[in-house]
Amino acid sequence: MKNKILLSTALILGFGASCSGCSSSENIISICASQTPHAEILNQAVKPLLEEKGYTLEVTILDWTIQNDAVKNSDYDANYFQHRPYLQQYDSGSAVYKEDYSYSKVFPTAAVHFEPLRIYSGKSAAADFETKKALTTTTYEICADVSNEIRALDLLKANGIIQDYETDKDGTPINLPSNITLIDENLLVASRSDYDYALLPCNTALTGNLTADASLPCEDETVSSLRANVIAANVSKYSNDEEYKKKIDALTDAVLQTSVSQYITSAYKGVIEPVIQDLR
To answer: Which fold, 7-116+224-278?
Structure first.
């Protein structure tokens, strides 16, 4: 990850804020997020709730690869873009997920929504999937970050496309079959036509305006709690800075409100599912 955040690349939303997280005002909460659906949920559903409590929520769209560093380095109060396995991988350096893991840098305060990873048609049609999935010549593109790579491989395994996969001591998949290709997430949509099928995180598909085909496999609800996207905050500041803790608790309490769940259900028509859970 990059250690330096280039503020010129960030798009700041809401209340015309001119500074991304650098204000010392106790009434301003700064959060970096991915645009869809994260920033949309924050601006449309969470910000009004915080205003009622006297807080101004400043939402900045930021490259997901630097959002954890941004919170760890105190450039922002919190972030919202990831699920717990990805956050734990950043915090520990290992792809092996542990439910009782003790976070040391950035920790999850609340689960908000689940973005199912599913298979999308590429150069081959959805109607041909059941026939083609048994062929070793059928090609698949999957996301190159480890957490989404594991999700994709688990989905392929669940549908009998692969038998199993190897991992190294850190839990990173190795020795993938030749018909499975790792692609950077920002290139997945554009390169979809080069492969028979693409395994895309829901957020990636939404930003590419792709429509899910119900006939193609999708992650089921058994992984929704684990893979729910979370609000994440700075471990040290939450433990040692009372003003910061009040901000994060206010943000988390707002996210947990029923109206946020209702907004997610209404706005995304079931493509994205609310998974509201207090993780503090």
So the answer is: D-Maltodextrin-Binding Protein; domain 2 (3.40.190)
Q: What is the structure's pLDDT at 271? A: 77
Q: Which two tokens stand for residue 17?
A: 């804020």
* 10-residue averages of pLDDT along the chain (280 residues): 40 39 72 96 98 98 96 98 95 92 98 94 97 96 93 95 94 96 95 97 85 89 88 98 98 98 91 93
Question: Rounded CA gap, 252 and 272, in Å?
Answer: 20
| Domain spanning 118-218, CATH architecture | 3-Layer(aba) Sandwich (3.40)
Topology alike, domains 7-116+224-278 and 118-218: yes
Boundaries of every domain in the chain: 7-116+224-278, 118-218
pLDDT at 22: 43
- One-letter amino acid for residue 188 of the chain: L
Distance, CA of 134 to CA of 162 (rounded, Å)? 9
DSSP characters for the chain? --SS--GGG-EEESTT--SSS----TTEEEEEE-IIIIIHHIIIIIHHHHHHTT-EEEEEE--GGGHHHHHHTTSSSEEEEEEHHHHHHHHHS-S---TT---SSEEEEEEEEE---EEEESSS-GGGHHHHTT-TT--EEEESSHHHHHHHHHHHHHTTS-S--EE-TTS-EES--TTEEEE-GGGTTTTGGGSSEEEE-HHHHHHTT----TTS-B--GGGTTTT-EEEEEEHHHHHH-HHHHHHHHHHHHHHTSHHHHHHHHHHHTTSSEEEEEE--
pLDDT at 5: 40
Candidates 47, 108, 85, 114; CA nearest to 230 is 108
